[in-house]
Amino acid sequence: MRVLTVPNWSFGRGPSLLGSFQEELSTADVRVHYTVSDVDHNRTVTAFSGDVAAVESTLLRLCDLAFGWIDMRDHVGVHPRVGALDVCPFVPLEPGDHAVRESLALAERVAARIGGGYGVPVFLYEKSERGRHEADLPALRRGGFEALRDRELRPDFGPSHAHPKLGVTVLGVRDFLIAFNVDLATDNLAVAKEIAKEIRNYRADGDPRFLGVRALGFPLASRGLTQVSMNLTLPDLTPIDPIVDWVETRAAEEGVLVAGTELVGVIRESDLRNATELQVRPEQVLK
């Protein structure tokens, strides 16, 4: 049974660790779709797929590498984060209940290993969530790593206090989503934040153009840009190109040009016809 995982790691300024990741992934029995670090976010996103056993062993080897290097006490970046392995989704790539059950079992094995082997509290989310954290997780993320250090936690695996260096991990099985960024040619963060806020408001109002679109605005100081960062959680209902076009039009109203777009992670082959505004490398396409 094939499964995709898209682990997000809290490092983006460590070329030696990125090199170790790339070396490890080059020899693993998985298909590697994405391994990219971002300096401003101070975050690395990896994406790879394969059979359950290969994905599990590869992920745990990356944990061995990352957990010996990352120290959240020194971590600074624009992206919200709560741990060294910040979030780790698993997405079954085959239909049916059996694929979901195998993915759920995989998530729980990895969570138990991270919680027991490394002493990192693990919170299950999305389809793995057990009815305990639907209200807790937004508050958990809102405070970031710094707000966790003195809190009593109720994780699904691991200790009741955040690891002093590695924080906590949010992990579980979820449906497929598309993550993408639209970079704006301005260092005025207010423009990106306002555009992201308008998208969230349209989504909340049920506007069909923005169904399932999560949006945040970030500064990209190293490049003199800002960014509207989006997750499209209902890709079967909401096409990408009209969203990018809307952002471009809205930015132009503020006198700002779009500097570029970026697909983060993977996209399905069936989504490409509605994603012509994104630059997509062949290895990013799930077939």
Describe this structure in words.
With 287 residues, the chain is an alpha+beta fold. It has 2 domains: 172 residues, Formiminotransferase-cyclodeaminase, Chain B, domain 1; 109 residues, 2-Layer Sandwich (Alpha-Beta Plaits). The protein is built from 6 helices and 13 strands. Strands 1, 2, 3, 4, 5, 6 and 7 form a 7-stranded mixed sheet that branches. The protein has a 4-stranded antiparallel sheet with strand order 9-10-8-11. Strand 6, helix 4 and strand 7 form a beta-alpha-beta unit. 41% of the residues are buried. The mean pLDDT is 95. InterPro entries: Formiminotransferase_C, Formiminotransferase_C_sf, Formiminotransferase_N, Formiminotransferase_N_sf, FormiminoTrfase_cat_dom_sf, FTCD. Pfam families: FTCD, FTCD_N.
Order of helices and strands: EEHEEHEHEHEEHEEHEEE
Give the tally of structural domains. Answer: 2
Beta-strand segment tally: 13
* Spatial gap, N to C terminus: 14 Å
Helix/strand-derived class?
alpha+beta
What Rg do the Cα atoms give? 18 Å
Can you tell me the overall shape? globular
Assign the CATH class of the largest domain. Answer: Alpha Beta
User: Under the CATH scheme, which architecture of the largest domain would be assigned?
Assistant: 2-Layer Sandwich
* Beta-strand proportion: 25-35%
**Quaternary structure classification:** single chain
**Average pLDDT number:** 95
pLDDT under 50 segments (min length 5)?
none
Could you give me the name of the CATH homologous superfamily of the largest domain? Formiminotransferase, N-terminal subdomain
| Fraction of residues in helix | 25-40%
